[in-house]
Each structure stands twice: as C-alpha cells, then as structure tokens.
Amino acid sequence: MTSRYTGIIETYRSRLPLAPEARAISLGEGRTPLIRLENLPRAEGVDADIYVKFEGANPTGSFKDRGMTVAVTQAVHAGSRAIICASTGNTSAAAAAYAARAGIKAFVLIPEGKIAMGKLAQAVVHGATVVQIRGNFDDGMRLVKEVARTAPVAIVNSINPYRLQGQKTAAFEIVEALGRAPDFHCLPVGNAGNITAHWIGYSESAGTGTAACAFCGGACAQLPPAPVAGRPRMVGYQASGAAPFLRGGPVKEPETVATAIRIGDPQSWEQAWTVQRESGGWFDELGDEEILAMQARLAAAEGVFCEPASATSLAGAVRDLKRGRIPAGSTVVCTLTGNGLKDPDAVLRGGLRDLIQVDAERAAVERALLARL
Ligand SMILES: *Cc1c(COP(=O)(O)O)cnc(C)c1O
Questions:
Q1: 134: buried, middle or exposed (CB in 10 Å: 19+, 13-18, 0-12)?
Q2: Is the CB of 158 under 6 A from ligand 1?
C-alpha cells in the first residue's frame, strides 16, 4: 500500500459525476491545511473556534484547482481539444496549468490592467493564449459565452457544473477533519460558485439535498456517503465596491482592491440565494481598508499569507463575532481562497516602509537590532 496523495478525483471519485473510465487530469490538488487560529481571536477579543481552510496551498495557489481538475477531466473525456474562460486571474492560472497537464489548449480572457501580476505570469508560463479585453470580468464572461456558442471550446468558468462538483470536496475535507460540519462557514463571494459548491458538499455529507445543485437538483440525499449530522450557516462576504448581493442586483462598474472578487454580475446568482435561504445564512460587505487590514493582521499574527479577496471571509467573520451575529463559542470555518504570493503589490503598495538600511558593518547591524528587541 502506498500513500502518495493524488488529488481529489482519486480520493472522491464515487462522489463525482465522472465516467469510471475518464482519465483524471490532476496535479494533486486538495487536502489543504485546516489551520486553527491561535493568536488572532485573542488579539481581536473574540471567543470562537476559528479555522481557516488555506486553499492557497493548492498547486496553482487557489481553490480553483479543485474545480478545474474535474472540469478539464470531463472536457478531455468528452473529446475537447481546447478550453476557454473569463477570469479575474485565478481561474486563468488554473485553466492554463490543467490544460498544459492535459496537453490541450487554453484561451483566457482577462480584464485590462486589473489582474494580479503573479496570476498573469502563471497563465503565460503554462502556455495559455491570453487575451486582454478592454473591459471588466463581466464583459469577458459575456464574450466567452458568445464565442463558445460556435467555436469548439469548452467553457471552464464556474457556470460549468463540473467546476462546482470539484469544489464541493473542500466541504468533505472539513467535515472529515472536524468530525462534523462547523456552525458557520464564511467565504468571499464573487461569482458565488464556491459558496454554492460548499453547500452542495455539506448537503451531501449530511445526506440532505440542495436545490442549488445543477446535477441532483435536491436529490443528493440519495447519494451514497455516510451522513454526518448538520450543515453550517453559509455566510458570504463581498467588497463594498463590488457587492451585488447587498445591492439586490448587478453592479455596473465594480471596483475593489480585492481583484479576485471584482465582479458585478455573479454567474451563480440564483444558486447563492438558495444557499442563503436553505442554510439560514446571510451576505454582508466590507470596505477595502478592512479587507487589507485583516490580510496584514492574519499574516503577522498567524503566519498565514492569503490574497486580499481571501481575507474578506475572516474580516467578515471577526466583525460578525464582535457584533454577536455569530454567537460566541461557535465553530467557524473561513475559506482563504488564494495565496498571498500571487499579489505582492497588494501588501507592498505603501513601499517597503519597515525596511531598515544600514552600512555593511557589524556595529551598524547590531545597533539596528538592539533598538528593536
Ligand atoms: C475565484 C475567487 C473568489 C471568488 O469565488 P466565486 O466562486 O467566484 O464566488 C474569491 N477569492 C479568490 C482568491 C478567487 O480566486
């Protein structure tokens, strides 16, 4: 018996809608750390068991890998030779990598200027054809749908239901790690695919259906896994400048430093409202300053470096704990969707403020250290 971990398809094959003979296109995604926060809750004065699911530890540095392995596996199985997506960055990085692995072509449409440099580098290095459009993500998504109507390319955005099937495995891992579902699960929300996927995963774990699932439409209860008790309340946080779920409809010119969730017209709009209703959760919004402050605090207090969009979940959870909307003593899981290394500009924006420069002499270095001990 060997113990080499080979990704979510091999691990959860019986719970994924793939043909038995479909060859898994995998980079060993999944099995990401579920880190219990030790310092930050005390510093913030909140009493709760807060865990962060660090999806930045996936092969391309975001949760998109969970969805992409299943979507690309299915696309290749169905005979596709090319995939296409619109992306704020992480979807294109994952699409490019999994297409390279599969030996097929990837076309990615990205918005002009508003993409983190690390993500763009990933799309380029993995050999995707990168098309920068003079418009935002929502424009790109509309164009992808139009092009795919006639061109022989498979869409791998989260409107592809195989993406959500892959992403639901994060909920399986959490239930396995905790022995039950948490009381609350908090996520950043852009297109709302991931919050929908987690709800599908928790529902299948609990042996209950969810109307949000494109495959079963609420019949998950008939699926095989051993049911565990309970499902969490699902809480979705948006950036104030890109918060259609708070405004009640599409936002025309979404704007936020959290570029991964700079989306004005969410593709899983109906599903996410279903998740909110079924789970008894809610949506809320945070300002860019609150988001960046939490990104920095988490990195300094716990040694976990996530990208700005990811910090939205934790910033929202801590605020809701302080307000009592999430009760003290709750078990809370926050998804940290992507790796901070993708977007170093976000933390170095103010320059290298804490950089100390001294002469290359022992005395000067010692002086600098002793003043700060
Ligand atoms: C894609 C992404 C999101 C948003 O997920 P949705 O499924 O679109 O709601 C959040 N954070 C990061 C880092 C992402 O890459």
A1: exposed
A2: yes
